[in-house]
Amino acid sequence: MNWHITEEQAAPKPPKARGINVAVIGCGEIMNIAHLKAYQAAGITPIGCFDLNAEASAKTAAAFNIPRIYKCLEELVSDENVHIVDIAIHMNGRREAFEACCKHGKQILIQKPVAHSMAEIEQFVQMSHTAGVKVQVNQQARWAPTHAAVKILLNRGAVGRLNFIRFEMRGWQDDPNTWYVRQKNMTLVDHGVHYFDLIRFFAGREAKRVAAMHASVPGQKHISPVIYSAVIDFGDGLTAEHCFNNKVMTPEPWGMNIVLDGEEGSIFCDFETVRLQRRDGGPLVFTPQKKWFPDAFLGPMADLMDAVAENREPACSLQSNVGTMRLVFGALESAETGEFVTFE
Ligand SMILES: NC(=O)c1ccc[n+]([C@@H]2O[C@H](COP(=O)([O-])OP(=O)(O)OC[C@H]3O[C@@H](n4cnc5c(N)ncnc54)[C@H](O)[C@@H]3O)[C@@H](O)[C@H]2O)c1
Questions:
Q1: Pairing of β 239-245 and β 162-170
Q2: pLDDT at 107 over 90
Q3: Nearest to 37 by CA among 294, 273, 337, 272
Q4: Ligand 1, atom nearest to 31 Cα
Q5: Is residue 3 within 8 Å of 276, Cβ to Cβ?
Q6: pTM score
Q7: 258 in Cβ contact with 150 (< 8 Å)
Q8: How many CB atoms are located within 10 Å of the residue 61 CB?
Q9: 95 CA to centre of ligand 1 in angstroms
C-alpha cells in the first residue's frame, strides 16, 4: 500500500458550483484575516457585506472589492440575489441574524461555536429544518491540510484500528484588549470547540462519556479558566486525552501535538507536518504548502456552495455538529461538577 499524500488530496477544494452568491455579516477580525482571504484566493467575491459598525463594513468592502454595503440586516436578507449568508459575529445578534436568514430562505455558514447552550443549538436546528435551509458550521480546522491528511490516512487504514488519541494544545490569548478575555468559558468552549471537533472527526464516532477539569491562574485577564484537561471515552477500546493551556508565557506560545495510535502504527501531527510511522515500515512525512489560516476557510464555504447546487447536506452540517457541542458542553459540565458526563 502506498500511503503517499499529495498537496491536492489534502488541500480544500474550490467549489464546482457556479452562480451561487454570498453575502457576509460581521466584518471583524476573522472575516478579514481568514474568510475573505481564502475566498479571494479561490476567486469568490461576496456580493455584499454588513456590519453594525459602518466603518468596518466600508473598510472590508474596499479591501475585498465587495460591491455592496448593506445598511441593515433586513436589507441583506431581502436581497434576492443572495443565496448564502456567512455569519461571523459574536453571540449578540446571532439569533436575530440566523432567524432572518431562515425566514428569507438563505443558506447559512455560521461561525463556531454555534451557540452557548445545547438548548439554543437545538432551537437553531429546529429553525433551519422548518425553513428547509442548509447550515454549515465553520469548523474549518477539519479542512486544514494537515488535519485533512490525518483523516485520509485514518480512512485508508494506515494505523489500523485506532486505540488512542492524544491532543495537546498550547497558546496565549490573555490580552486584556480583546473580546477573548471577556467571553465566558472562551478557552474551553469558543476556542476548545476546534479541538473537541477534531478529536471527534478523527475518532469517526460519537463519544460515550467525558471527564474534564479546568483552572484559572493567578493574574490572568480572562474571566474564565485558561487551562483545561479532558479525557474522552469513545467506547470499544478508543479513548482520547486532550489538554489546552491558553496562557503559555514563552515568546512563541503556540504549539500543537496530536498523536493517534492504532494497531498498525501511529500518526503524529503538528501545525506544519503529518508523520506516519507504521510497524512494518519507515515514516511517511507530509508537509503541505497550504495552511490552516487562512487556506482552510475555503473548505466550509466551497462545500456549502456545492451542497446547495447538489441539494445535499453540507459536510459539517449543524445537525452533525450537535455531537461536537454535546462533547464540549459535557466537558464543561464535568469540569464544573467533578463528575463524568455520560451520553446516551
Ligand atoms: N473559526 C475560527 O477559527 C475563529 C477564529 C476567531 C473567531 N471566530 C469566531 O468568529 C466570530 C467573530 O470573531 P472576531 O474575532 O472576528 O470578532 P471581532 O470582534 O473582531 O468582529 C466582530 C464583528 O461583528 C460586528 N458585529 C457585532 N454584532 C453584529 C451584528 N449583530 N450584526 C452585524 N455585525 C455585528 C462587529 O462590529 C465586529 O466588526 C466569533 O463568534 C468567534 O468565536 C472563529
A1: parallel
A2: yes
A3: 294
A4: 16
A5: yes
A6: 0.98
A7: yes
A8: 19
A9: 14
Q: Bridge partners of 244? A: 169, 228
pLDDT of residue 46: 98
Quote the mean pLDDT of the chain.
Answer: 97
Identify the residue whose C-alpha is closest to ligand 1 atom 9: 111
Q: What is the reported pLDDT for 283?
A: 85
Q: If you ran DSSP here, which 8-state letter would residue 290 be given?
A: S
What tens digit of pLDDT does each residue of 10-58 get? 999 999 999 999 999 999 999 999 999 999 999 999 999 999 999 999 9
- 256: CB partners within 8 A, 6+ apart: 167, 168, 169, 170, 269, 270, 271
| Residue type present at position 259 | V
- Cα(317)–Cα(337) distance, rounded to whole angstroms? 30
| 93 φ/ψ angles, rounded to the nearest 5 degrees | 90, -5
Question: Rounded to an integer, what distance in angstroms lies between the CA atom of residue 277 and that of residue 210?
Answer: 29
Q: Is pLDDT of 314 > 90?
A: yes
CB-side neighbour CA atoms (13 Å) of 129: 9
- Taking the C-alpha atoms of residue 298 and residue 305, their distance in angstroms, rounded to an integer, is 11
- From the alpha carbon of 56, which atom of ligand 1 is closest? 39
Model confidence band, residue 2 (pLDDT cutoffs 50, 70, 90): confident
Q: What is d(CA 44, CA 151) in angstroms, rounded to the nearest whole number? A: 27
The domains found in the chain, sorted by start residue, are 7-139 (3.40.50.720), 161-262+319-342 (3.30.360.10)
Of all protein residues, the one whose alpha carbon is nearest to atom 21 of ligand 1 is 28
Rounded Cα distance between 343 and 212, Å, is 14
256 — phi, psi (to 5°)? -145, 130
| CA dihedral (293, 294, 295, 296) positive or negative | positive
Q: Which three cell numbers stand for residue 44?
A: 469568490
